Amino acid sequence: MNDRLVPEIKRAMAELADAAPPTRPLDELLAARSAPPSPRRPRLFTIAAVTVSLAVAVAGLVFVRSRVDHESRTDDTPTTTVAATSTSTATTVVPSTAPAPIATATSAAPAATTVPSTNVPPDRALATGFVPISITWISLQNGWLLGRAPCTDSAGECLSVARTRDGGQTWHGVATPPAPADAVDEVRFANEHDGWLFGSTLWATHDGGGTWQQVQGLTGVTRLEVASGRAYAIVSGGSDTSQAFTAPSSSDAWTLVDPTPVISNDLALRGNTGYVIGTDGRVRALSPAGLTALGLPCAATDSGGAGGLAIADSTTVAVLCAGDGAMGSSAKHLRVATDGGKTFAAAGDAPLGGTQTWLTAASATTYVVGASSGATSLYRSTDGGATWQTVFEEGNGGAQLVDLGFTDAKHGVVVMNGAPTPTLLTTSDGGATWTKAAIHD
Amino acid sequence: MDVMVMTDGEVYRRYADELLRFASALVGPAGAEDVLGDALMRVFGSSKWTEVQNRRAYLYRAVLNQARSVHRSTQRRLAREAASASEHRYEPSSVRAEVLDALRRLTVRERAVVFLTYWVDLPPEAIAEQLQITSRTVQRDLRSAHGRLEVLLG
Fold it and tell me: Are A309 and A298 in contact (CB under 8 A)?
């Protein structure tokens, strides 16, 4: 942030804090409050406002999976068998707004137990005011959206999960975990049955979202992807202590992949190929057996480090390396390895605008970079990163680009999560154009 | 005293001041007491409260959740009150009104992260622990807040 603003922000925060009223005795404070709100109940959703018609208006447009690495049930064959280690079953009830106690993931494999939750029956209408925050697809027709919507029986926002079976033409609500609205940030499904909601807590379903169980022992999940019947998660333990865990998609038997610390934001899977980036900056191949150190994509002069990781094909992996950021801009160097991540070479530079970045690949030659600062932008290259075009830009104060990804060379999706309203963007032409999609039932 | 054996009243006395200041930073002084009171009612009524290891962090998170809950419904009212109060109560002469207005336009969680970063001087990892969210979320919120503040105050 502009250094000039920092002292003013500090003073403003100090003034706001200092303006707090004097503390009262606890009994006085509580006596002044009304009875606590009733527990959250299942809600019936009504039709959300429609702003833009989904892909049905475009011939041939089919909805896409959120990430290139999501695979369907037909590929659901674990590459390696990991014995289930857990079984504990104490019942838990997560308060509707008070946070759940935080467990800490340790370097040892956690006792990855699941506990029954107080699930609500599936809803059949989309929540009024539903706004998307994350999306996942297991096929061109079947996908899930995680979103938030105004609670129906109390003030504030509640979690909401919706699914489609028709490529996103219509959505309906399904069961939602009894978790605070900010307890999870993203959704992934491996197939019709196995899915996860993750963020500060991890929830799993193995009946297609009918019921959700909180996975005990894993908290602070920053990334989770699934391919070939196996899920991988990056679990944050603080600075330089994030680690990779894995579980067969059909179970909650999570085990530590490797004690090597990895960067919390980067995890890419495709088929049986997976990569993470170590805190030493080196790309590492990911398998249930552990991590294998590969090439070093970013130069010492890339002060921003890795700002995106993508698999283009079975042997091509790309990393976006960021330079110094200033005034909403930063250098964005695309480095590509075509030998399975062993040796990286400079492929080109994306435009400077935006300091927070995301990267995905539609093919070995087509890349899309998301960038955010004061504005939110999508940049596209069709020549392997040599030249770039701005294909989307919106001055919205800077949004998070969640789940930026392609299913095939043409179809891609991203959730633009930020001001003024979270929005789903889709493309059906390989990222040349992006359209805001309506979400309705 | 071991916080795990404290009574609710003792926990409150230990943390009330900082929680009230935190709430004031999130929703303004006019709504701070309501937010704290409602958060405490939920926490003390929770069956999990007695098992919580990090009670201070749990309370911070509860205040943040409550602030987010009331934010939508009372945003307009608080904005009016804050705008009015800023002329008479807590607008400092050293802070531009635009700065306060820009801070009010952040999300509640962004404001919490900005408050803990710039007023409490906590690093992202400590903020993550205090708010019981991930470091990634903290860094994301901080970057988002920076971007918006730059646009608004550029």
Answer: no
Across the interface, whether the CB atoms of B25 and A17 are under 8 A apart is answered yes
**CA trace torsion A232, A237, A239, A242 (10° rounding):** -20
Residue B133's pLDDT is what? 84
For residue B90, list chain A residues with Cβ-Cβ distance below 8 A.
Answer: 15-16, 18-19
CB A399 within 8 A of CB A387: no
Q: Cα angle vertex A22, ends A21, A24, to 5°? A: 115
The residues, ordered by sequence, that sit 6+ positions from A206 with a Cβ below 8 Å of its Cβ are A193, A194, A250, A251
One DSSP character per residue, A172-194 reads EEE---S--TTS--EEEESSSS-
Q: Model-level pTM?
A: 0.58
Residue B2: predicted pLDDT = 54
Q: What is the rounded distance in angstroms from the CA atom of residue B132 to the CA atom of residue A292?
A: 32
Total Cβ atoms within 10 A of residue B50: 10
Nearest CA in chain B to A181: B65
Residues present in chain A in total: 441
Residue B107: exposed, middle, or buried by beta-carbon count in 10 A (0-12, 13-18, 19+)? middle
Cα–Cα distance measured from residue A159 to residue A176, given in angstroms and rounded to the nearest whole number: 7
Q: Could you tell me the pLDDT band of residue A415, with boundaries at 50, 70 and 90?
A: very high
Q: How far is CA A122 from the centre of its chain?
A: 23
Running DSSP on this structure, what letter comes out for residue B66? H
Q: Which residues of B touch A97 (CB under 8 A)?
A: 42, 62, 65-66, 69
- Tell me the pLDDT tens digit for each residue of A220-274: 899 999 988 899 999 987 555 789 999 999 899 999 999 999 987 789 998 888 9
The CA-to-CA distance between both ends of chain B, in Å, stands at 47
Question: What pLDDT is attached to residue B9?
Answer: 85
Pick the residue of B53, B132, B141 with the most A CBs within 10 A to test the interface with A by mutation. B132
- The encoded tokens of residue A260 equal 């090597």
- What's the pLDDT at B126? 84
Name chain A contacts of B144, Cβ cutoff 8 Å. 372, 397-400, 418
Q: What is the structure's pLDDT at B94?
A: 59
Question: In whole angstroms, what is the distance from residue B75 CA to residue B110 CA?
Answer: 15
DSSP string, A224-236: EEEETTEEEEEE-
Instruction: Check residues A217 and A91 and name the one with the higher pLDDT.
Output: A217
Q: State residue A124's pLDDT score.
A: 64
The count of other CB atoms within 10 Å of the CB of residue A154 is 17
CA distance B60 to B66: 10
Inter-chain CB pairs, A–B, below 8 Å: 227
A356·B99 Cβ contact <8 A: no
Instruction: Please give the mean pLDDT across all residues of chain B.
Output: 78
ipTM exceeds 0.90, yes or no: no
Q: For the stretch A357-371, what's the b/e string if a residue is b when 16 or more beta carbons lie within 10 angstroms of its beta carbon?
A: bbbbbbbebbbbbbb
CA R_g for chain B: 16
